[in-house]
Amino acid sequence: MRRSYGIIILMIVGLVFANGCEFGKSPGNLYKAAIIMEGEMKGKPWNEKGYDGLKQIEETFGVEIEVVENVNTEKDISEAVSDLVKDGTNLIFGHSSNYGEEFYNLSKNYTDIHFVYFNGNYYSDNLTSMNFNSHAMGFFAGMIASKTSETNEVGIIAAYQWQPEIEGFYEGVKYQNPNTNVRMEFIYDWNDSEVAIQAYEKMKDYNVDVIYPAGDAFSEDIIKRASEDNIYAIGFVSDQIKIEPKTVLTSTVQHVERLYVLAAEKFNEGSLKGEIMSFDFTGDYITMGEYSEEVSNRFQETLNQYIEKYKETGLLPNQY
Prior knowledge:
By secondary structure, this protein is of the alpha/beta class. Helices cover 38% and strands 21% of the residues. It folds into two domains: 2-132 and 256-283, Response regulator (Rossmann fold), CATH 3.40.50.2300; 135-254 and 290-319, 3-Layer(aba) Sandwich (Rossmann fold), CATH 3.40.50. It has nine helices and 13 strands. The chain has a seven-stranded mixed β-sheet with strand order 1-3-2-4-5-6-12, with helices on both faces. A six-stranded mixed β-sheet has the order 8-7-9-10-11-13, with helices on both faces.
């Protein structure tokens, strides 16, 4: 487990409010924020986005930040939290759904600390789960895949069967073209790129010509393989069109860095509640990435209209 430290922002000296607060730093509940993550930050889009959010907290609130990498076991989590609390951290982000249960247990002992993690069902007075409602983004990805496919065979490679974007993808494919078949493969690990590549090879045997790799740790590898095989792909978590501009049709982008800042703002002002919070296209916490030239302007307009209507009504096209 490796710890890496953010830089304390230099405070402007000489300008002091009458109440003793330094100029440029918002007074509030936040003293220090930290993130723990399962793997390393570099090269992992989901982890990099979490770090970007933490950096924005540092810049916005003028507080120290800290990153702890490779925190996987119950023991690792407990030790990391203990060390962070000793260092004065009072807002701790766990950058995975896998931290929910252990955070729930730790929150009972560290009642002055607020814990935040993502895409889980555990919560308590000082534990918040911030969830992406990814069913809709999967739906729109499915529409694009189905529209583009010439073989009427599209595929999704996901880490786990419970990912909401899987059902959404299937529904979007069928809404766009009921005759398009959906192939699914699950690797049961967020980070196993080797197994994901094996799943991709299976997809090729079924003549799949559009693929949606729904896992950030392996999406880039799949996109590069797809480019070699003249298969289209849809990016995941980040806007990945620059990886292979002729291969990536668009991306389903989750702006988790914005949730970090939102959580810090609420915590600093004392309004962050222990609850499950849900985020979607409304508020632009989820967006579609840049479109490829392979997606016609007319279809882009149609899709964007569907997205705007979804933001207004909460209804997907198959629910009208």
